[in-house]
Structures are given as C-alpha cells and as structure tokens.
C-alpha cells in the first residue's frame, strides 16, 4: 500500500468570455485573456494578466505565502475611491513548473471585489 500523498489536480484553461473586476464602482480589470485555474475541489480562480489590471490601484504588501504546487505568492492591497481591501490580490511571479501559465497574472479574492464573466 502506497502512503504517498497525491498531488492535487490543477488545470488552467483560457476563459473565452470577457472578464471585468470591480472594487466598489471602480474598474480594476477588464480582459478577454483571463485564465481559470481549477485546483482539486477548490472553487475555480480567475487569473488576469497584469497588463489588463489597473495596477495603480494596487499597493504591494509585505505578505507572502508559499503553495507547494504553485510556488511563492505576493500580495497587493486595493486602494480606490477612498476605500481599501488589504491583501485582496495575489499573484505568482515565478510559479512552479506545470502552472507557468499564471506567471504575470493576478487573482482577486471574490469576497473583496465583484468579478463579472460574460
């Protein structure tokens, strides 16, 4: 009997529909090049290319986490329209092999922003 832990199944697929991300009434991102990352039984995560994100609303923080499957994540706080959401955005600048497609992309916590697809 094998005692090895199974690696979670990760898929990354292009989202063909337009994706818009809003913080309050501020447009943070709009793209037709989003990626959907599905990891095991976790909810799918929308990753958006940084060049399609209004990065001027994102302030880098000192927070970093490490995922054994994706690598080291950096975080940003959203600051727009007089409101802020701390560490509400994350991304992997140098993700691990197998998930390299998310390099140069960021993801938003869906309880901090409104993400519209389609």
TrEMBL record:
DUF427 domain segment(s): 19-111
InterPro entries assigned: DUF427, DUF427_sf
Top-level taxon in the UniProt lineage: Bacteria
Pfam families (UniProt xref): NTP_transf_9
Protein name: DUF427 domain-containing protein
